Amino acid sequence: MNTFEIKSSDESVLTVKSVGQEIRNGGFHYLTIDLEGKSGGSASISLSYVLEEEEPVEKINSESEFYVLPTGMVYNITGKSFAAAKFVIPLFLLIVLLTLGVLTVTFIGKLRHGGFSYSMVFIGGVILFLLVSFIVIMLDYPYWGFENNLISFTDLPLQLINCEKMFLSITRMPMFLLAASLAVSNIWLIKMEGFRIQNALGILMGALYIGGYFAENLTNSFLGADSQTVFYILLTVNLGVTFLLCYFECMLISTMFCAVAATRYKPEPELDYIIILGCAIRRDGTPTPLLKGRIMRAFDFEKAQYEKTGKHAKFVPSGGQGSDEVISEAESMKRCLIELGVPDERIVKEDKSVNTYQNMAFSKQVIERDCGSESCNIGFSTTNYHVFRGYTLAEKLGMTVKGLSAKTKLYFFPNAFIREFIGLLWEKKLLHILYATLITAAMILMFLLLF
């Protein structure tokens, strides 16, 4: 008959509620001790356990130090674990759920009111990761050590790493399909318009992702190395690649969603000015099909607005004259608008800009001069893949605008979107590098210190 004796050094701080014994897993003896914290403070539990069924008789003596929080939660100082898993895990899940809820409400609010911005991309990326993490944690909930009612400090980073791994596993097939579709669209684009490095960005990005995926799997397969130094080097590389891939995927998927949402957003018919963002024109000075699409989108919206509300909007064709262009892009667009029946007094040209940022900045100045001190509602018309970038540039200039999306050729869209995504990353490159580095370094450091 096995005998045991358990004592608390301070019953007013920590008491033993119950003790259970059982034999399982090949004859191993298990002793389950249920502790209850009474008040804040420190206490120790001493255990004297005699296995009389064993030959020879085995005696076990141990002592563990505990700290009881004012809430009654018990922390095992000796074993670095909480003796209150049923409290810690729901609290952790509640924090994740509340964070997810607040960010989702914020994201939906931006979506409804056309508040497309960099912050929206970051919020969307965090929502995506937290949502997958919440699902993974809930699925693992029954296996979080309820048998001994303990949760270690190492359990949380391990669970987070598990979430990262599961995230990559869940998104693996969609990302591979995306990489394949980008490669196909790039081949199609190169066949239609010739080879340029800009026309192969999708192939390069797909190759980069696949390379990262194989690097993560390759280092993972060698983590059983005998050398401790080699093990930690491979572990560091593996965790770094894992977190960077997750960060990249979250930003890419969130950007894709925001970009598509921006193209589908329908502004209210109350615009006072519509900026038409310029692009290259033909040698004879007429708009290219791409530019013509932007002009027609603005024209059709203004026409529908007038029919519905009786309110006309002014057009602001924006774009300077390139070295190989016979007239400015703004002048080319103005002539097209006049041909469509728009009177000259409702066209306000901006013909000095040479890039999209200047399109927005100089158009803002033109509109402010034209409308004076009055507040006005501003829209802008551009090709679908370019709408979200227009929003972000307007935000940078302190402008409140609404985007109008013009369609483009199917084979052109994926690569153009990737180009815009790279542009978005580059625009905030220091911020992305800082976030990715801090998150990756923090997780690797926490993991290495705890293990």
What does this structure look like?
- The radius of gyration is 31 Å and the shape is elongated.
- The relative contact order is 0.09.
- α3 packs antiparallel against α4.
- Residues 143-150 have low confidence and may be disordered.
- The chain has helices at residues 85-112, 118-140, 155-193, 201-221, 228-264, 289-309, 329-339, 356-371, 387-396, 413-427, 429-450; strands at 3-8, 14-24, 28-37, 41-51, 58-68, 74-76, 81-82, 151-152, 273-277, 314-318, 378-383, 401-406.
- The strands form 3 sheets. It has a 6-stranded antiparallel β-sheet with strand order 1-4-5-6-7-8.
- With 451 residues, it is α/β, with parallel strands linked by helices.
CA gyration radius, whole angstroms: 31 Å
| Class by SSE composition | alpha/beta
Q: Give, in order, the helices and strands.
A: EEEEEEEHHEHHHEHEHHEHEHH
Helix count equals 11
- Biggest sheet layout: 6 strands, antiparallel
Principal-axes geometry comes out as elongated
- Helix content, binned percent: 40-55%
> Uncertain spans, ≥5 residues at pLDDT below 50?
143-150
Q: In what range is the share of β-strand residues?
A: 15-25%
Q: Say how many strands there are.
A: 12
Kindly report the average pLDDT value: 79
